[in-house]
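Form 7-S
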Amino acid sequence: MFFDRVIGQTAVKERLLSDLRQGRVPHALMLCGPAGSGKLALAVAFAQTLLCQQPNEDGGACGECISCRMAAKLEHPDLHFTFPIVKETKVKPENATSDLFVKEWRARLLSSPYFDLNDWLEDMGAANQQAKYYVAEADNIQRKLALKSNQGGRKVMVVWLPEKMNQESANKLLKLFEEPPAGTHFLMVSEEPDLVLGTILSRTQRILVPPLTREQYQQAHPPKDERLFLDLFIMLMRLSYQRRVKDLREWADQLAGMGRETQKSFLQFCQRQVRENFVYNFRQPALNDQSADEAAFSRNFARFINERNVIPIAEELSRAETDIAQNVNGKMVFFDLALKMIVLLLQ
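Output:
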């Protein structure tokens, strides 16, 4: 996954290479942006570029040297990854580190760096759990970076979703983030930088990664959950309008059977659909960002999202997402949401 294989994000690529050419690469860099924008792909490509032994004139990786060949297979001894994991029954929490799932991580990353937390939870076989960093991960990171560079060059640690790191883990890493060993770089990838502990955030240089265009997004993310999410959204709206409470209970049961990360993704999808349907009423196509199927549904549904109910509906969806994140019973959350939607759609 070198820069020429990263979809879109030309401006971010150019900035990273420019900083490298000018010797201004910070020791702790955080790529921030919405889900699906390709932040992890950029981080991996830049890590491989930092490790290249014979860079091109523009600073990019040559793709031919031994470091590039090892990095392309994610086998470079100076390229490290740390990421949130779920509780492993065979290992005590105080010993749980990302190394337990490194085989699955490499397989997923080599398959495609365009994946989300739901995909990663499935790879770990734990769709109903929430992934996080355990305290042992901090010691694991320190141990790896204390070693000398195997190839005599830089060492790179890619940190995926640092917002999943608790305060105890973060505190153990503060000095390392602030004063890492010479030639060591942290490349952090965050979707919610506001949730990253301030002590870590203050020690990083942030680069905003903008959303991909719809065409670029579809290229990076072949349709999977979005068709299912759209069907569930349509079902919620139709059943709520028809006041079919019994069917809404079954709808809630279906959502409750999904993993919590999938549930949160669905509620985020619903919030986007509410926004798109409200904007659809202005009859300004340039303002909408919808697939053909989404637009087809909006043609008849958009009029039900208006200035009286758009904010209350969005707030209820956001509240449901918060409840799911806090492990509130899924059946209760989704059935309560459905009942409230009956009232809100008639405003």
